[in-house]
Amino acid sequence: MSYQEIPNTAAIRRIADNTSIPADPKNQDYAEYLKWRALGNLPAAYVAPPETNEARQAKKDATLKLIDAASTRAIRELVLDQAGVISLTDIERAASRDRLKRENDKANSERAK
Length: 113
Known about the structure:
three-stranded antiparallel beta sheet
């Protein structure tokens, strides 16, 4: 019998049948695990499963949403300044342009992944 650690939990996994065993001394499976450990055995280190395409896409979408929000703010500032609704200083105008370019570069990089 062999076991594997499960990170961020008080449980372990029995590899043979992929069963998650809670760290409860009253649990018969956990008691067997403790006996196995008492014999000098060590659980296998946890290996994270590969990231799914759906998870990668969700991360990408979330990142692009944040980038789009920052780009929208920079565009809004520049349009309102151009229309005379607000008055940006030269430094603020340059900062908005820089922010817009930076966010667009980030978006292009993210979309290319």
